[in-house]
Amino acid sequence: MTGYVFPESFVWGSATASxxxxxxxxxxxxxxxxxxxxxxxxGRTLNGDTGDVAxxxxxxxxxxxxxxxxxxxxxxxxxIAWPRVxxxxxxxxxxxxxxxxxxxxxGLLERGVRPVATMYHWDLPQELEDAGGWASRETAxxxxxxxxxxxxxxxxxxHTWTTxxxxxxxxxLGYASGVHAPGRTEPxxxxxAVHHLNLAHGLAGRVVRETAPAADLSVTLNLHVVRAAxxxxxxxDAVRRIDALxxxxxxxxxxxxxxxxxxxxxxxxxxxxxxxxxxxxxxxAVPLDMLGVNYYSSTLVRAWDGVSPRSDADGHGQxxxxxxxxxxxxxxxxxxxxxxxxxxxxxxxxxxxxxxRLRREYPSQPLMITENGAAFDDVVSADGTISDxxxxxxxxxxxxxxxxxxxxxxxxxxxFVWSLLDNFEWGYGYDRRFGIIRVDYDTQVRTWxxxxxxxxxxxxxxxxDQATS
Length: 469
Ligand code: FCB
Known about the structure:
The chain is an alpha/beta fold. It is 39% helix and 13% strand. The chain has 15 helices and 13 strands. It has helices at residues 18-21, 34-39, 57-71, 82-85, 95-110, 126-130, 137-154, 167-175, 187-211, 233-256, 261-266, 280-284, 348-361, 389-407, 450-461; strands spanning 11-15, 75-79, 114-120, 160-165, 216-221, 226-228, 290-294, 299-303, 330-332, 367-371, 412-418, 437-439, 446-448. The strands form three sheets. The chain has an eight-stranded parallel beta barrel with strand order 1-2-3-4-5-7-10-11, surrounded by four helices. A three-stranded mixed sheet has the order 6-8-9, covered by helices on one side. Strands 12-13 form a two-stranded antiparallel sheet. Helix 7 runs parallel beside helix 9 and helix 8 (167-175) runs antiparallel to helix 9 (187-211). The longest helix is centred in the middle third of the chain and has 25 residues, at 187-211. Beta-D-fucopyranose is lined by residues 17, 20, 165-166, 169, 222, 294, 371, 418, 425-426, 434.
């Protein structure tokens, strides 16, 4: 979409997450999370990288706020580390941890930047995992208590409270394929985790409604655009099944107040879903001011014919176990390039398609793009500049896709680039760089890539065609 002008009210932001940037893993009373344990387990992350130091944001947050202000962004999406504010995941809160986020929020407000706080971006206190983790209902109840503590402390100084980031990843990558913490490969536990994450969302959402009524409430989902390899009945049914696991397992209870019947039927060989108690689904469907959408790439499936070699190119890491519970007869096919350094295909049209689907199915639900961006192997030239043209091209094409969707009626209110800084990219450690600002991990020096200059111009003008690199 050329010549599109975003309105002044459109929010331009950037996003990060606690374990990916903070470091200071043992400072000021922080407890341990499942990601500390996982990343310190040999063989779990690329090069054995951990978030112990990361981008050292815990000590450099003032400088990082300076970059956000200099970029001219209207909002900053960060996450709160549960083990930093409530070590152990129950009982007493840690003053030093709360104070850190309180200063961060005040610092954003002083600079005229909206704080958008995610309560859970994957750093579950290890003690709660030891007691069953997200497979246990108790974890959702603990989450409600944690939410009450942080919303009580930060309240409506936080503009938007986001309960969860990508519960799909927490449940299926954490408990089915095991490529994320806690690294379990138990399909039934993964589906229980789906429900307990949904329940945690509903419980925490109600806390926000009651304690900080002026704040916006949201959740962030990584919705999948699933396409069929052919229009055969079998391939279309493969799409339906994956759509149920990937998308409707969350959209259903959160926005429609019920799990889809086909999801329960498809997974009946794994669980009877008796962990869903009467009243849970109603509780989960707390009205949302904003639905957060993360988008990176698309998914292509077909029904396995029982003979061909299996294909598992779903972009979600390599594991002997699949994240796709009870969908063993579905193949995930490699897609045409180009690809990012994650090996993910670049498909901005699918982004438009996703936003239009949401408009069609949930016409009155405002949307926010809470993550979009790309990892590439950046090259620092002799004069210190980083000409990350491919990242700029990715961003330009995906923001144009958002413009396209808006022009067709999708109510998208803002866009957060992933990420402000290079950071700890989970199982891929420091090897994959998503930042618009480079971090030199030896010196912790921050350097703007060309994409940061480009994004600054876009945020200032709202005009995609006029932002030049
Ligand atoms: C998303 C995560 C985020 C980051 C990006 C690349 O799945 O929410 O933390 O790792 O992918």
